[in-house]
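In keeping with the milestone schedule agreed at the kick-off meeting, the structural modelling team has produced records for the first pair of proteins. Each record is given below as a sequence line and a structure-token line. The laboratory manager (R.T.) confirmed that both were archived under the project's standard naming scheme.
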Amino acid sequence: MAFREAGHVRLNRKYLFIALCCVVVASGCGSDGSVGLASGQEPDPVAVDFPISYTKRSVPLDEDGNMMQPDLRDLDVFEPGAALFIRDRASPSSPERQVTPEAGDPDWDIRDLQVSYDGTKIVFAMRGPFLPDVEDDEQPTWDIWEYDIATDMLRRVIPSDLAAAAGHDRMPLYLPDGRIVFTSTRQRRTAAILVDEGRPQYAAQTEDNRGDAFVLHVMEADGSNIQQISFNTSHDLYPAVLPDGTLAYTRWENTRGRIGMHLYRMRPDGTDTRLLYGANSHDSGSDGDTVQFVRTRPLPDGTLLSLLQPFEPAQAGGDLVALDTSDFLEVQQAVVESIKPGPGQAPVTVNNVRTDDQPSPGGRFTAGWPLWDGSGRLLVNWSQCRLLEQDGSIQPCTEEQLAAPGATAADPLYGLWLYDPASETQLPVVVPDEGEMIDEAIAARPRTAPPVLFDDTGPGGFEASLAQQGLGVIDIRSVWEITGEDITGAGIATLADPAQRTADQRSRRFLRVVRLVPQPDRDVRRVPGTAFGAAGRFIGMREIVGYVPVEPDGSVRMTVPADMPLGLEVLDRNGRRNNWPHRNWLQVRPGETLSCNGCHVANTGMSHGRAEAFSSVWEGAPETGLPFPNTDPAMTAIYGETMAQLRSRISCETDCAAQTPSLDLVYDDVWTDEDTAGRAPDDPFAWRYADLQTEAPVTAACLSTWAPQCRAIIHYEQHIHPLWSLDRRVFDTDGITVLADNTCTSCHTPRDADDEPQVPAAQLDLTDGQSPDQADHFKAFRELLFDDLEQEVVDGALVDRLVEVGIDPDTMEPILVTVPVARSMRGGWASGSDFFDVFAADASHAGFLSEAELKLLSEWVDIGGQYYNDPFVAPEN
């Protein structure tokens, strides 16, 4: 039950709705359900004698007068009617003063409050003024502003109008060294890379084409020296400084198999980017409701305060939880060293908060801020549960009303409250009027700053020579390690031993690195959906950065371009992906080495993106000064080294060629020692673009030497379609007599040698011409990647085949239906495409296509089978 205790209210989950109408003596619930304070009666502020600041805004309403529901993915939203206020202390009796905009000016929006570590300055995002009769994309941008409490001075952090308008800037945060980290659409480094690639500067869109991607930047306190530090393909949000000086932030991942906003961690220079928490914990909302992790900030006890909300939160609110990220990666997944039983997250308050769209008995929160005064108390932005009665009145929720059929939630009334978890009591600090909401607040109390982490000193190491070239390194201990387990059966050491396994007995042979191509908005170029092929925009356009062989122990060490989102794919001997693609984009900063133990399998519910997630199962070289068993005796290892690390170390005494990728698939057995292994080295092979008789998807310079700017960019019409008509006739020794014609279009054509209609071989037409199903595509492209209908020749015409499946009882006529033909290529999955089966060594089309051609086709299908892989080559819509 609820009862008053020294001016406080002790709260019980079940009866929270009753307690809120009894906050203090002489306070009551009005007819509209709002909480009011009687004159002369105030709750005890408990000596919170430092300034507080908060935003007050009008509840955003649509044309019908209903509250507009926000979307966490829409960051450039502009809802004028907000103002920033400050009070000298956290008490209802303390007078408030408006900081910005000027009193009575409703045309501004304000969000994302943060305070400096000394408690003297407040930084926030502000947008305005609203310009009537102006399109949304022509309204003023979101800018970072700073308010000095002592001097009552307000300034825009980036003083230049031109520089400030270069992008939307939001969610600023003071770093311990005085700089400011924030998220922005300006994408400063990404734009510079686009120029280097010969493309115009533009803000890359999110993967779902929702809008410009917001990514993290840092700048000096005066707005100078802006540097981009994160390179996500969607949003990076809500940075927070952890006790060790690293940054936690919310990353919106929007790739195949992983869509959600969970927590990542990095150093303030962008190095050592890792998963922190929650990638597989999105079902932790009410009754398994899908939620996201946003507005995260540290709590004094070392846990992280986070707001749980779905992408489209009901009434803009959610539940506040504490995350134990020191010991847990997920709600039920602890790090390997942890002995805690879990779970990894727990509610911060006793309120029974629902995260779905049902009425929430314990109300809802929009934010929380720890006071850092040793008490564990929080400032919380909270609205009680309110129900809309049939007569239009608003009443606080009761257990009986919530159980009644058709109970309808009224618009929330978010105010500012002081919550004490020790006593489970809650005090009102700022109670808004109906139609208003207090949705953010901070306490300007000094607190100890975390340590300053200087740039370029991450645990992965820093190499100046690579940094100067704009390169980094990815180092994987073994692709045979899956979420901390050796999946080989025989053991990684067995596969690494040439005396026990040949190369062809290892299914994982190469690693491919791909890059998602940044997509421009429609003002830059109107790219039609047909440019993306069967998978649509979901997979996006992709470039191939390069290949390296997987060493016998499964290890990989590879030089990669820095400052761009990269994906990894493990391939078989044929250059086809043989497991799930990497489900999140990696980034390395110039000179950084990003290390990981192994890989993971999708849909296991286990996360692996932190070094401490699992102990590595591959110990590497057993001794220093000796080679790996039965390998070249000249390649002596250091204890614990992987084969890739050993090979790279030796190679980097000269040119680091062993860790430099190639756009070709090249294998050379450098390991097998014939004397000790008892067998000859495995046969080498090289499948090169230079061996193609058709146009290669790379520049001439990249055919011979890989460089950071080298990419394979494959377009269907330019690089794939010419394969079908390439002359593949086989001649006798006289060079004249045709023994066989293996040209694809000699059989896969709707016309025979006499120009009469015929059914194309395997119901697959690979000839030229526009598709009757989609004018933007060649018909051969549609035949390969889309389901089709079986055809037959009837009365000299090629028509869709019809088969009888029954009799219509009304007309007694036969019911005829078409016969489907499954597509032979599956965009994104070459290994699962029937197309390649006929080219196997003992199959009907063996030898018809060269190894280089099969490699080109395999990689094109694996990266999505897109019609174009460059938005500026695709025709405009």
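The second protein of the pair:
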Amino acid sequence: MPIRPSVIALVVALANVAPMLRGEERPNVANVDFERHVSVLFRRLGCNAGACHGSFEGQGGFRLSLFGQSPANDFTAITGDIKTRRVVVDAPDESLILAKPSQRVDHEGGLRLPKDSWEYAIIRRWIADGARYTANRGHVHRLVVEPASVRLAPGDSLPLSVVAQFADGTSETTTAFSEFRPTDETVVTVDADGRVAAVGPGYTSIIASYRGMFVHASIVVPFPPADGPSPHLSPANLIDEEIDGRLDLLSLASSPSSSDAEFLRRATLDVLGTLPNVGDVRDFLADDDLDKRARATDRLLAHPRRATVWAAKMCDVTACNVDTMESPAALRPKRAKMWHDWFRHRFAENVRYDEIARAVLCATSRGGETIERWVEDEIRRENGALVSFESDYCQRRELDLYWRRIGADGPTPIEDFAELTASAFLGLRLHCARCHHHPYDRWSQRDFAGFAQILSRVRFDSSTELRSEINRQLEIRRQNRGSGVTYPPLPRLQEVYLSASRRPLVDAAAEASALPTAPGGPVLDDSSDARNSFTDWLVQPNNPYFAKSFVNRIWAKYFGAGLVEPVDDMSASNPSRHPSLLDRLAAEFVRCGYDIAHIERLILNSNAYQRSTRSVANNGADSRAFSHASVRPLPAETLIDALNTALETMDDFGPDVPGGSTAYDVAPNRLNGTDLDTVFRFLGRPDRRSLCDCDRALGPSIRQPIYLMSDPRVIAKISQGRLARLLAEGSDNRTILTELYLATLSRFPDEDELAYLDSQVSAASDRSAGFTDVLWGIINTREFSTNH
């Protein structure tokens, strides 16, 4: 028997209803207001959820705005004409808005509003007072929670208080009308009244929300004290100052530094996306200089592969997707490589991040060139791409490829560009506000439409100037036909340019009149190009999103997760797990001139990054405070490249990629003519089809062990390359085993390992087969397949 929608609605709202059935103390409300008190109760009760009256068609002929985004419409729906009116001012208890949810009249949603509850009393008072509505009384200027920060012992509890400061200058305690949730229920729980109870040790936040505004209270529950002293190393920089301070608040011990071998392997995997070579491992471990880790960090950050790894990352972030590129299809992999090379060139030159962002966001195809010069260069570039992967596109000032996208039905909708741009450069997920008020953030449809309008004058097609120039080129060819003058083929050209008129919004059509507006920021000057005004606002030192979102991405690259996670969800309802550290890193990023390598160097030189994964004292249960390093699975490209580095082998990535490429050189999001595309997907490489950076599989997975144990390519590689060379050189068993350890695990084997593996090889009927089995065993260890 199918489940009825009304039953689904009841289940969805059950968690909100349960507190109402307990009859808590009634809030002291002097004057009941529709926006401030009544409409917010509909949300707490689940009435305006998408599975109930907030759905597009409503329920039972009664429709509310989704999540209460439009109190005015809700008021009209409740008090409408004589046929739809759900309030009876002269007899409030007879009002359907009370009678149905209290089940005195049949209600498919079940009991939502017991007659003896304070919520019932609030709505009844509003009806008895005339069921009036004063517009904009509920607009919240600021939301405050007290206490904003608290330290609790396990088993302790305390109430939170929420105060709303309204736009009209009045304030009111809105605790009873607010919603609460913890970000980590293993640390604390919170009930509907805002009472927090400590459950276990850790750091978390309680999110309080009221009328679309969010605020959080920080909660610290210390760990049981360690036995004996456990001092931290002296802070290396601001990162350690912040993290050590948090560890002290939590009474957590910190693990000692990783070994030299562990540090070199970890840093090389993170910076270069592959393993260190055998010679580098030997040299580093033999170096007695106390400053060798800092010098190794500088060498890694100067290595050309760092730029390649970052280019691949930025292709993910900016959704370099061959399926959205212009025709001809044969050139799409070449365009993807141009995209990749453009970013690689800038990271190799350590270009400031604000300059990179501006060159993407404000790009046009001509970038200030004359139409004649641009057409000449583009003809040469397009024709060259037909025969080669080599291109000078990376020398272009701007990345117009970001805007050269084709949708399934023609030009890519402006709303898609708005979603992608917000995710990539602000760390914001605005997609919900595309259709309705965001349920977990401040953004409305008007906010989304205002942001989309910034981009609505961008076109990708044939401009009037381009058509005129193409006609001129054709006329030149016609006039010189038969004269012996040869011209390169004339490809079909389109360009990214700025139109005098805006493209209409599709999904947010009702808000199409919105002015170009930065998210949470000012209305922007659109007299020339609103993208320039937007980028000026974006790169200001006090911008709340730009610097934070990118240092958060850098942090995630080196620690496996961001200080805000997901990294592109920097919403008011998703606070950082270390707000003061994120603030200081962002301020440092601004201070150093948006120097990406500077932030990477701070991280790599910090004690926090260099700690061992081995737990000590009381920090074994900690997974969020950086008391010890975490064991992380290798990203798909890193695993493939590390395997090839260790085994001295290479992969053929097919016709869409130049020969000799590594996994991080692969620019297209999908590959034709090779089953390595399946391997990429299997290992978690994103397909870049979503409008956010959210598709890469980062957590532990059974897929990597399956790949290493059984993939035919891996099995074949083991007996080739390095092992075949060592056997051909006639090296003895221990020499071969030592090099295999240095190549795969970046360390020397200990004597027990050497003795055991030597005995295994010596006992094998075939020496080559014995070494093949040993090497297969090494690469299938957790020590090889993880970063630790």
